[in-house]
Amino acid sequence: MTLTTESSPLAALTRQDPELAEVILGEAARQADSLQLIAAENFTSPAVLAALGSPLANKYAEGYPGARHHGGCELVDVAERIAVDRARALFGADHVNVQAHSGSSAVLAAYAVLLRPGDTVLAMGLTSGGHLTHGSPANFSGRWFDFVPYGVDPESGLIDHDRVRDLARAARPKAIVCGSISYPRHIDYAAFRAIADEVGAHLVADAAHPIGLVAGGAAPSPVPYADIVCATTHKVLRGPRGGMLMCGAELADRVDRAVFPFTQGGAQMHTIAAKAVAFGEASTPAFSAYAHQVVANARLLAASLGAEGFEVTTGGTDTHIVTVDPAPLGVDGPTARARLASAGVVLDICALPHGEGRGLRLGTAAVTTQGMGEAEMARIAVLLSGVVRDTLDVREVREEVRELTGEFPPYER
Ligand SMILES: *Cc1c(COP(=O)(O)O)cnc(C)c1O
């Protein structure tokens, strides 16, 4: 897809609403000429964008295929069945629900299936890399459930399964959640399953980040281990912004009812069609190669940042995520992020295993979609270090970022 004013349907928008069209084109330019290292972001294909921008956006479809509360659902039923069938085949899951509007909605539905308000839940603490839905007091999870947090070892940055088991034995949680927004290593789902079984808890895998790597065979699958797997479709998986749930046949009806009508209304059929397109893409050898390249790039980026003096959490990565402490370079995370932003490098800050300080979280999903490889990761690490240390001129780096991204446009121009 060409994101220019001449192309339809943006041409129609430009004619009718130039003010908004300018924002959209400006954002497309920003995404293309700065460096997207936010670990949760990616570039969807033109086919996914086409499904998102299709007339399926007009259709009301409360319920599930074959059992809707609205007429005229024959064709959107086909779209949803294709999405479900493709996801079941891709992940080897008995049952898939593709209606969750977001990753958070998927987690809400999973809790609705397994928990009652007031139940105890063991999950990674927010200060260690847990998500808002893992017990934040600002979120429904922290308000309605009694969360007990587990952390990571302050030295190694790794999950200490003995510690998780001790906490589980003491707290006797109704459910255990494994999954994180910043943990760079594979989750040991078998270990969490064993702990859950020992204390009679349900296991929820919140695989929002790694599910795309799972699809490409570059990370272990939570599907054989968790009672319910929650995921997003827009991170490494490279689909539209949205969520999904997977479970065994015995929970299928309850999961579906927890999504609709318990926590959501009408399904977003354009998004579900776009999820189907993304699952189709993720089933190809090309996507498997992509997922493995994402990890290879992250490993090289971690090693290069380590060589530049950053302290790399856990000493490296198994996934698309790299987290580092810039303290050895003389700055804290927020300062580093601000300097990098002015050089056109876009990334997040994150919790660190030790202390109160904030680190930097980087991800390689988007730059790998653009076609960047290990050589570019090494170049990026040098630029990052120069900007954070303040030994490179920010304006010069901004130009170099423009050059680099210009060699790897996310969309055809
Ligand atoms: C991204 C993420 C979510 C939430 O996804 P949204 O679509 O933003 O609601 C939930 N859990 C984890 C672990 C995540 O990384």
Automatic annotation (TrEMBL):
Coiled coil: none annotated. HAMAP family: SHMT (MF_00051). It holds the Pfam family SHMT. (6S)-5,6,7,8-tetrahydrofolate binds at residues 126, 130-132, 250. The record marks 234 as: Plays an important role in substrate specificity. It comes from Streptomyces beihaiensis. The modification N6-(pyridoxal phosphate)lysine is found at residue 235. It is found in: Cytoplasm. The keyword Cytoplasm applies. This is Serine hydroxymethyltransferase. The lineage of its organism: Bacteria, Bacillati, Actinomycetota, Actinomycetes, Kitasatosporales. Pathway: One-carbon metabolism; tetrahydrofolate interconversion; Amino-acid biosynthesis; glycine biosynthesis; glycine from L-serine: step 1/1.
